[in-house]
Write a structure and sequence with these properties.
CATH architecture of the largest domain: 3-Layer(aba) Sandwich
Bound molecules: NADP nicotinamide-adenine-dinucleotide phosphate
CATH topology of the largest domain: Rossmann fold
Helix content: 40-55%
Strand content: 15-25%
Number of strands: 12
CATH superfamily of the largest domain: NAD(P)-binding Rossmann-like Domain
Number of helices: 10
CATH class of the largest domain: Alpha Beta
Shape: elongated
Length: about 290
């Protein structure tokens, strides 16, 4: 029986990146749908649920992607609502790579020390990657500060994280370089989670920093998020700090993504969202 992945993407053209990764991870057939709206998900998922016997349903799975993460989350809710009893298929949400990227970055940061003794600053953490990374770090027991250029936006995001992940993340406004220096005082790790092509911390700030042990950057588009941290670095040590660039993190992210797709076909009742993908990432890193 062939392994069929139903790829639901909110963008008009389903992601080629997600399709190739799915094939590389062992999916044998891809049924791709682009421009999917949340209200269309139930009927599409029914097609995957009602075609094979319960014992064979692990050979069908759903992947939810697209650049609009909020829409992806709504699509995941619709998919879960379609399931009942044993009539279900495994499903993964990785809209815009948010879950696999955040989990990979967090695993790298955790390699720098015990999270319960760490203060971590997620710079420009209001995007999908930063939000998930902040929540996962807080869930591991780290003291987490999430920054935005505006306090109001940081506060709104932290309130949403408290509701969705039941974690406490502290909001902070960081509109300029002076504020960046201040927010990093006493920090043990910093994650640059800003939009592509935006430098958030300069080398002159992180290099001489007294307490930082890890600097991670998920922005692969020059200028990079952390000045002086090369994209390919994967734990390079300078001045007592472990440095992770976007490709260093991205290589592990790809492993996590592929492992998640493979796991979808091992059982018919998996739901892979941030927390479950993080658990798989930690397993892979061991
Ligand atoms: P995003 O939503 O595009 O941006 C994150 C935050 O950056 C925004 O909420 C905004 O925060 C801040 N920002 C935007 N323009 C800025 C500017 N000019 N100066 C300072 N801050 C600015 O990011 P994302 O989708 O979460 O992705 C985060 C990073 O991960 C991106 O660099 C992306 O390219 C990368 N990424 C990598 C992969 C991968 O596979 N390697 C996958 C997904 C994403 P405020 O408005 O609140 O200040």
């Amino acid at each position: 029986m062939r392994k069929i992945l139903l790829q639901l993407d909110s963008d008009r053209a389903p992601s080629v990146f997600d399709a190739i990764t799915a094939y590389d991870a062992g999916a044998e057939v891809l049924l791709q749908h682009g421009g999917v709206q949340p209200e269309e998900v139930r009927d599409l998922v029914y097609g995957a649920m009602f075609t094979r016997g319960v014992g064979d349903l692990k050979n069908s799975a759903v992947f939810i992607g697209g650049t609009d993460v909020a829409k992806g989350e709504a699509m995941l809710r619709e998919a879960r609502n379609a399931f009942f009893g044993p009539m279900r298929v495994s499903v993964m949400l990785d809209a815009n790579g948010c879950n696999t990227t955040a989990t990979a970055a967090v695993v790298k940061i955790l390699s720098a020390g015990d999270p319960t003794a760490m203060k971590v600053v997620v710079l420009a953490g209001t995007g999908p990657v930063g939000q998930r990374a902040a929540a996962l770090l807080a869930n591991e027991g780290a003291e987490v500060i999430l920054t935005s250029r505006t306090l109001e936006r940081a506060e709104r995001v932290c309130a949403a994280l408290a509701e969705r992940f039941e974690v406490r993340v502290t909001p902070a406004a960081v509109p300029d370089a002076d504020a960046t220096r201040r927010v990093l005082e006493g920090a043990h790790a910093v994650l640059c989670a800003g939009a592509a092509g935006v430098t958030l911390v300069e080398e002159t700030v992180w290099r001489p920093h007294a307490t930082l042990r890890a600097v991670a950057d998920v922005n692969a588009v020059p200028p990079l998020g952390a000045g002086g941290v090369e994209v390919t670095w994967d734990g390079k040590e300078i001045e007592g700090k472990k440095l992770f660039g976007a490709i260093g993190i991205g290589d592990f992210k790809m492993k996590v993504h592929r492992r998640c797709i493979a796991r979808l076909f091992e059982q018919n009742d998996l739901v892979l969202d941030a927390e479950e993908i993080f658990a798989l990432a930690k397993e892979l890193a061991r």
